[in-house]
Amino acid sequence: MNIVILAAGQGKRMNSILPKVLHPLAGKPMLGHVLDTVMTMGHELKPCLVLGHGQSQVEEFLEKKQYPTSIAIQEEQKGTGHAVLQAMPYVSDDETTLILYGDVPLIQVQTLQSLLRLAQDGAFVILTQELEDPTGYGRILRNLESEVIGIVEEKDASPEVKQIREINTGIIACSTQDLKKWLNQLEPNNAQGEYYLTDIVGLAAKQGVPIRTIHPQFGFEVEGVNSRGQLAQLERVWQGHLTKQLLIQGVTLLDPARIDIRGNFTCANDVMIDVGCIFEGDVEIASGVTIGPYCVIKDSKIGAQTQIKAFSHLEGAVIEEMAIIGPYARIRPGTNIGKQAHVGNFVEVKNSNIGQGSKANHLSYVGDADVGEQVNIGAGTITCNYDGVNKHRTTIEDHVFIGSDTQLVAPVTVGKGATIGAGTTLTKDAPAGKLTISRAKQLSVDWKRPLKSTPKD
Ligand code: UD1
Ligand code: CA
After folding, report:
1. Chain centroid offset of residue 356 CA
2. Which of 66, 137, 309, 449 is deepest in the core (most CB within 10 A)?
3. Close Cβ partners of 121 (under 8 Å, ≥ 6 residues apart)
4. Which protein residues touch ligand 1 with a CB less than 6 Å away?
5. Mean pLDDT of 123-150
6. Within this chain, do residues 355 and 277 fall inside the same structural domain, yes or no?
């Protein structure tokens, strides 16, 4: 199959230096949605993108994300037919061509597969829709036998044609050989002086090619974006679609309107999510997890029965079962938090392993550390992992107790079962089983506070 994606338009109404198709929907550029959908239809597919405005920015995006595409350039926007014509040198004659749009981001695989199935025998297939208000769209013309005979653009439509409520979504599939022939016959004899892709429908009908239509499963699949207002609207519709799926799967959302999913979100049943949470990238949540209000969770995996409390921020982390995180915890990339561990208020953990049952409950920084099992990290503990040039690791073995306000100057190791006295600055390894303390000796002396001097006259 050949896939052509039109993305040459400027998107004037976005009022942006970013090309329209790179504006994100649910955290991903609109064009990325279309390409990911195409990729799930077949990894061997190499869509041809028609670019114009913002070409270099789009190419940069394609390269960064390593999308396998070929690129056709449309220097001047002379209409959709002219745009598709630019892609023809990149497509093979003996396969069906499917035409998609970079600014119609939410087309779904199932709809495209149904469309392609109908096109298998060389038929011309158009994705159409019945709209209450068809204003602005191309209308589908049918004869008395209800066969499609053409498409008329709004600007060229008579008042009678404007009454037609079946519209062209723009997405079509047809034989490539025919497509090439028809595109070369197009002429810009219309209200907009453009080469209309839609005119090939009339040519197909004249040639006696069977023309079939099919509707998308969801209305949002064929929504195009021309302005930031439409983008914001489509974002809400899409979020609503995603949350509906979660509710069906058995996830409790305290308010389905107050959650945002921007990526691949996998959530088991009996998870409870409070309001204001944002999930980004690849997030996987096991059953029985509760997530408090206003958490941001990115590229992380959370084990069964774990509680993430309010205002916690997790990125690139693996949290095992029955742990308690937050409120106000910050878990940064490369962190693995073991079963039943607790990481509490205002604790930052980065690139560290926290063993089973270990606790760091208050105001600490644990960075580049390997913490064993059943360790207690007192309030205000800091791993001094950075010497100004390099990062060093801290090792804290099983059953260690670290007193409050301790600095562990890495590289340093605290041996199994050791106790570190509060206020210690640890610069050398602390032996297993012993109390290690570095602290000025406490002393008490007799002392009188100075009195306020009284003025003499
Ligand atoms: C088009 C259809 C119309 C359909 C509507 C659905 C034509 C002539 N009309 O109209 O029947 O109902 O879409 O939204 O096809 N583009 C290029 N190069 C160009 C012109 C357009 O790449 O020279 C791209 C645009 O970036 C856009 C898409 O093609 O992504 C559609 O173009 P647009 O001008 O929006 O077409 P419509 O007038 O909306
Ligand atoms: Ca349009």
Report:
1. 31
2. 137
3. 210
4. 6, 8-9, 50, 74, 77-80, 82-83, 101-103, 137-138, 151, 153, 167-170, 196-198, 224
5. 97
6. yes
